[in-house]
Amino acid sequence: xxxxxxxxxxxxxxxxxxxxxxxxxxxxxxxxxxxxxxxxxxxxxxxxxxxxxxxxxxxxxxxxxxxxxxxxxxxxxxxxxxxxxxxxxxxxxxxxxxxxxxxxxxxxxxxxxxxxxxxxxxxxxxxxxxxxxxxxxxxxxxxxxxxxxxxxxxxxxxxxxxxxxxxxxxxxxxx
Amino acid sequence: xxxxxxxxxxxxxxxxxxxxxxxxxxxxxxxxxxxxxxxxxxxxxxxxxxxxxxxxxxxxxxxxxxxxxxxxxxxxxxxxxxxxxxxxxxxxxxxxxxxxxxxxxxxxxxxxxxxxxxxxxxxxx
Lengths: 175, 125
Fold this sequence. Notes:
Helix content of chain B: 40-55%
Structural class of chain B: alpha+beta
Strand order of the largest sheet of chain A: 1-4-5
Oligomer: heterodimer
Number of helices of chain A: 3
Shape of chain B: rod-shaped
Largest sheet of chain A: 3 strands, antiparallel
Shape of chain A: elongated
Largest interface: A-B, 30 and 32 residues
Largest sheet of chain B: 3 strands, antiparallel
Structural class of chain A: alpha+beta
Number of helices of chain B: 2
Strand content of chain A: 15-25%
Number of domains of chain A: 1
Helix content of chain A: 40-55%
Radius of gyration of chain B: 22 Å
Distance between the termini of chain B: 81 Å
Order of helices and strands of chain B: HHEEE
Number of domains of chain B: 1
Distance between the termini of chain A: 85 Å
Number of strands of chain A: 5
């Protein structure tokens, strides 16, 4: 038979165990899930912007070649269109440095931009099957974590987390 | 024993409140994603049509209202030749009730913006 002190002790132990579970399990797991979700959300916003930018590269197709089975692309023009539309959609300046409202924290780099206009099926450098005229692009966007920013960055030993965003967009085939 | 029941009850209430709070945190993100999908569709239509027609604008506003957005303003480039920049700017307000403390909820209004540009593909204007 337990005395009153033991019963009080049992309740105190419950509270201590609960507090420990909250501090050492629930909050860290919740923070990790939240951080991951926020990063994924940022990546999705960037993907949407890159997707629209990819489709705009369609305009680099040489007009004289339209109507042929395999069309030619002005590659310099494509990169110019891609850079300028990317700058507009992600709120960057012309050197791809972030403006105040941008999601990016530092200069964005365009890792690859490839236009597939013939010879299908093909495969993009990251292994995605390309079956139709498409634009493949990979950009790297430096972002900062939203929660425990300094802690995460110091643990990683970096100033930013680099999000590599890869988008393959089908070029519209009819107008 | 009664003290243990009370402590367990309080713990359960706190855990449920934390779960509700965390689930509610994600709702605006999901709603924003729905908004992006609708706006992207409209921007693709604008690319082929060479601009935002009044009927497309109304359709977009109506679809956004169906999701539950309020105070919707949608504007876009009305006419652009092949290769010119098209812009779609949509602002909405999303109101929802959110858990603020353990036993209270408050209405919260969020402003969401979609602002994207693309190039017109319409060859004949």
